[in-house]
Amino acid sequence: MSFVIMSTRSFKEGFLSIWSAVMVCALAVGGTIIMRKFHNSMAVGFFMGAVVSMSQMFFLLFLTYIGYERDQAFINMPNKAESIMAFLALCQSVLLGSFAAILAAHRSEILDKPENSAMEMTGEAHGAPTVSYEAPGTMA
After folding, report:
1. Which residues are listed as membrane-spanning (predicted)?
2. What is the pLDDT of residue 129?
3. Cβ–Cβ < 8 Å for 59, 90
4. How far apart are CA 82 and CA 85, in angstroms?
5. Does residue 2 register a pLDDT over 70?
């Protein structure tokens, strides 16, 4: 759809379309990496913020396409394409917003438990022996 818009519209509209497509691809790749590999609070928080900002971007695109639609209607030109793009942008905004809400509600299930990450850091999870240390002066 982005390439159709680029060939028939102004540079601004084409850039909006291509930029939103690139951002959705980047969100998909980044989200896959975070959900599979990085289960710490900073990575999950960054992902949640990215999803919320993408939802807001698509809502603003919805408003932009509604404005283009009204401009086209004002000068008596066909505005069916703007209506479809506005609807798709609104759907994308609602879907990303609901995904962000679900992610926020279940983020504790995504995050690593503190004892699991501490075991991995010390090597206990791989069968390596651990050494306990007591500070001097604590022996009674």
Report:
1. 15-34, 46-68, 84-105
2. 56
3. yes
4. 5
5. no
Give the separation between CA 96 and CA 58, rounded to whole angstroms.
Answer: 9
Q: Which two tokens stand for residue 55?
A: 């939802």
Q: Which two tokens stand for residue 108?
A: 């504790």
Mean pLDDT comparison of 5-9, 117-121, 123-127, highest-scoring range:
5-9
What is the rounded (10 degree) CA torsion for 38, 44, 49, 51?
80
Distance CA 9, CA 139 (A): 78
- Record the tokens describing residue 79, joined without a space: 């505005």
Q: Tell me if 47 sits within 8 A of 106, measured CB to CB.
A: no
